[in-house]
Design a protein that fits this description.
Layout lengths: L8 H22 L6 H8 L13 H24 L5 H17 L4 H9 L6 H27 L7 H14 L12 H13 L3
Helix pairs in contact: 1-2, 1-3, 1-5, 3-4, 3-5, 3-6, 4-5, 4-6, 4-8, 6-7
Length: 198
């Protein structure tokens, strides 16, 4: 087990990252509520009590995972919105990007936890989480509205946002990364479903 003796900042930061990575993987596999601090500590090679040297609580670990994933995906989506691509192409990039983040990226566990465990946050962190969710959905609403305004999508923009978000969230129970559809083709299929104007 790793000792806590006056760890230099670089070592402490590395340990924090190892804790977050281990927790994200366990939360993705078992869920936040059923994962114990001891299980996280065992994966990292720490004593259970040592985790609280780096984080105040299990919820603080969850919140850091959610914060990291939210900011990451928001920045990526906002960069796409600033691009010169056509609205429908931006939407395709949005969808493909989220599939890649969950199923193929190194930080995939973080983004998977974001879909399922954000409701586990208490009132202490709720205001920050709501602000991050608003930023996230604002990007989605903007790209869908751009597609609608350009005539690319014929469905109601508000419903389209929810259909896409719901589809991406449930994909974790059925999508096979090595299956028939890669992220690019999957994004095209989803866009067809929500109603591309002919």
């Amino acid at each position: 087990m790793e000792a806590l003796l006056d760890n230099p900042p670089a070592v402490a930061e590395t340990t924090r990252k190892r804790i977050l990575d281990a927790a994200a993987r366990l939360f993705r596999e078992k869920g936040f509520k059923t994962t114990t601090v001891r299980e996280i500590a065992d994966v990292v090679g720490l004593y259970s009590g040592s985790l609280f040297h780096y984080f105040k609580s299990k919820e603080d670990i969850l919140m850091e995972i959610l914060r990291t994933a939210f900011i990451s995906v928001c920045i990526r989506h906002e960069n796409i919105l600033q691009s010169e691509c056509a609205p429908l192409e931006k939407l395709r990039y949005f969808i493909r990007q989220e599939i890649e983040l969950v199923f193929f990226a190194e930080e995939g566990d973080y983004h998977a936890v974001l879909y399922f465990d954000w409701r586990s946050v208490s009132q202490t962190h709720l205001a920050e989480l709501i602000a991050l969710r608003k930023r996230y959905f604002c990007a989605w609403q903007t790209v869908i509205q751009q597609c609608h305004d350009s005539g690319s999508l014929i469905g109601d923009p508000t419903i389209s946002v929810r259909v896409v978000e719901g589809t991406l969230r449930t994909m974790m129970s059925w999508y096979k990364p090595d299956g028939r559809y890669d992220p690019d083709e999957m994004s095209r299929q989803i866009i067809r479903i929500i109603g591309v104007s002919q």
